[in-house]
């Protein structure tokens, strides 16, 4: 179920900020990836089902999003009730990626957007979407491949992403799946270099 277009996503985040103001929560900075980041950064025009938090930002430093701060969870629950959203519309599903390792230069490429007094979002860049979507395309396929194609990566960008993916999963099985995904998606030249 894809519940967010760009307008509804922006509305949910503004409501989240308002709920944090009402509860006198501390200012919170989220690092967001996935479909909501694609939408917010005008990279892909599609809908998405949630807001994926890969990490938090605290005083200019990236920190783990496991677990999410309780004030944020409570505010998100209130937004869920107001907008009739699934309970996990705001989640830290990709937070393990922070622990596993992020692409080189990741932090410098973040795109910052102040939602309001209590909430700032740092969206991952197009380059980092290519890294994450390459991994997800090999791992899970489906709409991730569609997103990857919509990002129109150059062969050089895709090769760097694929090499990073092979650092995340060093198994020979993953390398085979990655090469096949690239080949079947029209990137034979990149596949042949792995």
Give a structural overview.
With 194 residues, the chain is α/β, with parallel strands linked by helices. It is 52% helix and 14% strand. The protein has ten helices and six strands; from the N terminus they run αβαββαβααββααααα. Strands 1, 2, 3, 4, 5 and 6 form a six-stranded mixed beta sheet that branches. Helix 1 crosses helix 3 and helix 6 packs across helix 9. The longest helix is centred in the N-terminal third of the chain and has 17 residues. The protein is elongated and about 55 Å long. The mean pLDDT is 96.
Beta strands, count: 6
User: If you compute it from the alpha carbons, what radius of gyration comes out, rounded to the nearest whole angstrom?
Assistant: 17 Å
Largest β-sheet summary: 6 strands, mixed
The computed structural class is alpha/beta
What distance separates the N and C termini? Answer: 35 Å
Order of helices and strands: HEHEEHEHHEEHHHHH
User: How would you name the oligomeric state of the polypeptide chains in this document?
Assistant: single chain
Share of helical residues: 40-55%
Average pLDDT across residues? 96
Q: Estimate the strand proportion.
A: 5-15%
- Give the overall form: elongated
Number of helices: 10
* Uncertain spans: none
């Amino acid at each position: 179920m894809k519940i967010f277009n760009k307008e509804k996503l922006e509305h949910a985040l503004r409501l989240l900020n308002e709920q944090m103001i009402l509860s006198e929560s501390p200012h919170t900075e989220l690092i967001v990836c996935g479909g909501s980041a694609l939408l917010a950064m005008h990279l892909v025009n599609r809908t998405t089902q949630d807001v994926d938090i890969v990490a938090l930002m605290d005083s200019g430093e990236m920190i783990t999003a496991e677990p999410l701060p309780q004030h944020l969870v409570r505010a998100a629950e209130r937004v869920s009730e107001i907008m009739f959203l699934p309970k996990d519309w705001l989640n830290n599903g990709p937070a393990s990626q922070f622990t596993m390792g992020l692409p080189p230069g990741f932090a410098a490429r973040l795109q910052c957007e102040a939602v309001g007094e209590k909430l700032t979002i740092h969206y991952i860049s197009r380059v980092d979407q290519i890294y994450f979507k390459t991994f997800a395309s090999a791992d899970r396929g489906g709409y991730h491949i569609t997103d990857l194609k919509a990002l129109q990566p150059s062969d050089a960008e895709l090769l760097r992403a694929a090499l990073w993916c092979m650092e995340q999963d060093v198994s020979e099985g993953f390398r085979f799946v990655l090469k096949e995904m690239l080949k079947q998606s029209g990137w034979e030249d990149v596949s042949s270099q792995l």
